[in-house]
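Project standup — Tuesday

K.O.: blocked on the structure for the chain from last sprint. Re-posting the sequence here as requested.
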Amino acid sequence: MSADGVPTLGVEEEFLLVDPGTRAPSPRGDAVVARAVAAVGPLVSGEFDRCQIEVRTPPLADAAALDGELRRVRAAADAAARQEGVRLCASGTAPVAGAPADGAGSVGDHPRYRAGVAQYRAMLDDFAISALHVHTHCPDREAAVLAANHLRPWLPLLVATAANSPYHDGTSTGYASWRAVVRGRFPCLGPPPYAESARAYDELAEAMARSEAVLEAGLPFWDVRPNPHHPTVEVRCMDVLPDVADTVALAALVRALVVDALERVRAGDPGPRVGAELLRAAYWRAARDGWEGAGVDALDGRVRSSAAQGARLLDRVGPVLGRYGDLERVRALFRRLDARGSGAERQRAAAARHGGVAGAVDDLVARTADGAREAR
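H.V.: unblocked you, prediction finished:
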């Protein structure tokens, strides 16, 4: 929380590292991180796969400050990647297939990653997927768990808004967010359960850990969770985006959703009991069709355009966005999506213009690098 009472927000972005010649993922993550750490310290780190890195921001109260910090940290990561002969690529999945891994593969050297491979086996063979995570300050864990009840119905719209993974290993999947599909096959990923209390939430996590559906009860990977290490509500359902302006607007929107949810919790509202089956159907439709399509409104089961759902969301959280000076920023994001399409649509357009998936990668690399420029 800032000194003037504004809930801080922070962002984590996961990037692929790609070879500029082949456009395939390159396992240079350890070397890139070692170079970047010299410039920005622990704001750059490794990820599940060595062909990925993660950048993060400190907690910030102002969206403009978030924009500047993201550009600064991206610049350090971009420079380090170029020094290692690779490029940052903001795509939820790898558009071009990499060479088969040998030996221990390209999984990062972390005990949790190794434990995941032992537990989930071949399900993790193509898990080099890249996300955008948004954290909003919340020191009350009980309230953070209950806030997820209010966030659950809006998660499919966030999936559609951030959809940026239509290609996977050289194949056009027909989906706007193939990353969401990859995640959906895991029993421990996706929308969080409706929880009556933090105790009920913990009991379910413990039961899932006993079943081996989740690695650790204290570290569930649901798409909304009280972060186990920081006093935040963490929202994890979105693909990484190449354009910083889009990322910042989406982060501001997520903060407004979380603040609205926390206010409803404190007023005694337990949240809508959206069924898990309808919510999974809404996720699937959002992953398939993205912003350009129509999606299932999980609050009433009706099919509405993403633009119509976005308008309903602004009706709900507009006052919070206005309170923090972010309303026009989010409206501008929705106008951009209507005018030029989602990340998935832009990848397809680049591939059509430039002769295939390699052209989509080149466009992503260029726009990701543009996001490393100084704040404008």
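K.O.: great, moving the ticket to review. The chain has one domain: 9-368. The two ends are 26 Å apart (CA to CA).
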